[in-house]
Amino acid sequence: MAFQMLLNFALAFIWMFLSSNYTVSGFLIGFILGIIVIVMMRRFFKQKLYLVRVWAIIKLTVLFFKELILANVQVFKLALSPKMDMKPAFFAMPTELTEDWEITLLSSLITLTPGTVVVHVSDDAKTLYIHAIDMDDVDEAIDDIKNSFEKAIMEVTKS
C-alpha cells in the first residue's frame, strides 16, 4: 500500500514537472493520471490497490459520524424525557478482531459514541465488556456493533 501511494505521488510530481504546470491543478491532474497508471498496472502488485483501503477508511469515518449523531439524538431524548425509563446494562461482546490496535480502535469508537462505554477488555482480547445507558435487547446491540463498527474495521485492515 505504501509503495503504491508513493508511486502515485511520484507520478503526480513527474507529470507536474514535465508539463511545467506547478500549480495544485497540475498536481491533481498528475495524481489522477497516476491512479489510472496504477490501476492499469495492478496485476504487477502483490497487494490490492491502495484505493480500496482508502475507500474503506472513508466508509468507516462516515459510519462513525452517522452513529455519533444518532447516539447523540438518543441520549438527548433520554435527557429530556420527563420519566427516566432507562434500562442500563452491562454486556459482553465477543470480537473477531485479533490485533491490539484493531481492538483499541473498536473500543474507542464504542466509547466515543454517547451512551456506551467499554469498561474492560478480557485478558485474551476476545471479549469486550460494555456498559450501555439504555438497552432494550443485548443481542441486537451486539449484532449492531458487529455489523457496523467491527465489520468496517475488518474491511480497513483485511483489504
Count of extended strands: 3
Q: What does the main sheet amount to? A: 3 strands, antiparallel
> Given the structure, what is the number of helices?
5
Instruction: Tell me, rounded to a whole number, the average pLDDT.
Output: 90
What percentage of amino acids are in beta strands?
A: 5-15%
Unreliable stretches covering 5 or more consecutive residues = none
Strands of the widest sheet, in order across it, are 1-3-2
Q: What letter string, H or E per element, gives the SSE order?
A: HHHEHEEH
Q: What is the rounded distance between the termini?
A: 10 Å
Helix content: 55-70%
Radius of gyration: 22 Å
By helix and strand content, what is the structural category? mainly alpha
Shape: elongated
Write the layout of secondary structure elements.
Layout: H1 2-18, H2 24-40, H3 50-80, E1 89-94, H4 100-112, E2 116-121, E3 127-132, H5 138-158
Antiparallel strand pairs: 1-3, 2-3
Helix pairs in contact: 1-2, 3-5, 4-5
Report on this model:
It is a single chain. The protein contains five helices and three strands; from the N terminus they run H-H-H-E-H-E-E-H. A hairpin with a 5-residue loop joins strand 2 and strand 3. Strands 1-3-2 form a three-stranded antiparallel sheet, with helices on one face. With 159 residues, the protein is mainly alpha-helical. The chain is elongated, with a radius of gyration of 22 Å. The model has no long low-confidence stretch (mean pLDDT 90).
